Amino acid sequence: MADNLSKYIIEDTELWASFKEGDWHAYTEIYNRHFKLLNNYGYKFTKDIELIEDSVHDLFVKLWTNKSNLSVPVSVKNYLYKSLRGDLLRKLAAHVRFVHIDEDHHHDFMFELSFDHQIVANEEELALQKNVKQVIQTLPARQQEIIYLRFYEGLSYEEISEIMGITVSSTYKLLYKGIGNLQDVLDVSKLSVICLLSVMIKGAF
Amino acid sequence: MDFSRYITFTYDDFLNDDFFVGHIVNPSADKTKFWELYLEHYPEKKSTIAAARQFIVAYRKQDVHTNEVHMDRVWEKISRTIQMEEQPAKKNFKLYSFLRIAAVLFIATSLGLGYWWTKKDIEITTAFGEIRTVILPDHSTLILNGNSTVTYARNWDGVKREVWIKGEGFFKVQHLNRDTLHILQNEKFVVHTDELDIEVLGTSFNVRNRHHQSKVGLLTGKIKISYAGDIKKQRPSLIMAPGDYAVQHADQQVKVKKLINPELLITWTRHQLVFKDATLEEIAQTLQDDFGYKVEFDQNISVKQKIEGEINVTTVDELLGLISSTLHIDITKNVKTIKITPQ
Predict the structure, then answer these.
(1) What is the reported pTM?
(2) Does the CB of A24 have a partner CB in chain B at under 8 Å?
(3) B-contacting residues in A 66-125 (Cβ below 8 Å)
(4) How many angstroms separate the CA atoms of B30 and B43, rounded?
(5) Residues B179-190: pLDDT tens digits?
(6) Which numeric CATH code is attached to B272-342?
């Protein structure tokens, strides 16, 4: 779904192929391109920055050590997301004494985002943002994560299911549940029709 | 444009639709056009689309936590961990080299002077700017470039053909093996640089081993490259095909690329100075390495500036004259020193 309009001359997959052969510069560039993204994603699972850094560290060391056994992923970013997610959740689970296993054999985790530091254009936008925040925060962690990967990262159902380790049909169901009551709660009828926000948010990167 | 799919769409449907979401997350001219046209045809959908879009846009205005300040620090930690993990392997290399030398010395000294004399390796060193053809014991030829050293056993009867090289050399190796699928030990031909072992079967290739870096360009035939001292084969070997060019740095693995003109690598053997799109820096390096010149640059000269196109000359004076007129710089040559200054 995401067009992957690359702003780089050399594609991630090209870098990956070089890094696999032992190219240290390609490996460094992969790190440089993804460090911020990975930290931002990790911060949704925990506010413990050191733990996120540990996961990033372990992930990259493992990549270099195993480089000759790796294949070239379709999306380097998605691959890194999936790996970081797995490692971070494992580390978090180790901190918890009692682990709750749900029907998909995943540990409970938290997924949180905040809207505290955003500059808002007007009253209406502020109200909308407050509503969005309220609705999202009541949703279970996995639904929140799916919404994040879909509407913030722009990933397809297949890509999301791959990263989260669930089936594509589960992804559909969870997303549907997540946005199910959005329309009512956000009081769509009161929103101004003309107010199409012209400022496109292209993400922080 | 086909809008049929979207005629009965609800708010939820739009949020569930890849194309719609993609249009907001990754906008493009085409997509915008599609949706503008859609609204022209179905203006009743305006509020629904606006609401769906508004949710996504509002959602995307969330706080971002990139931890950018720690990016370098974490990288240093990663580098250190990797270095520490690779240390033990390096230690093994050094140990093996030591053992190998110790073994040779032991055999040499224990068998008496006479035998030692006939067993002594041949070592040939060229002066700066000298190009020498060496005929090896199996009648393979080696053209040795200036400021280079080659070492090999005097006699190759019944033993593996081995050569050690520092500097640059162009090898033309005789085929000895009868069966390409089963090559016997003494049919192999191995060239050793500081960092690599190059195993060949009958072929022509160029080896450049300078500044702790080995570069191998294959012209014809087939060669296999492995890492010096890696007896346990912990790092995978590389098979090269004609036109392949392998570069290796002291700490890193080999990186192979394809050369469009591999024959440019060996123009030096014909006493030709050939450069293609070379920087001043690269040319100076060759003058230094192969000819022993000391090149001094005025601080106002950028060493990274390139001479586009191909240079093909036979003397150093010609080369300097060409550079001088092309880049509009002054070059003076005094015995073994070359000074480069602005005009």
Answers:
(1) 0.51
(2) yes
(3) 68, 113-118, 125
(4) 19
(5) 555 666 667 788
(6) 3.55.50.30
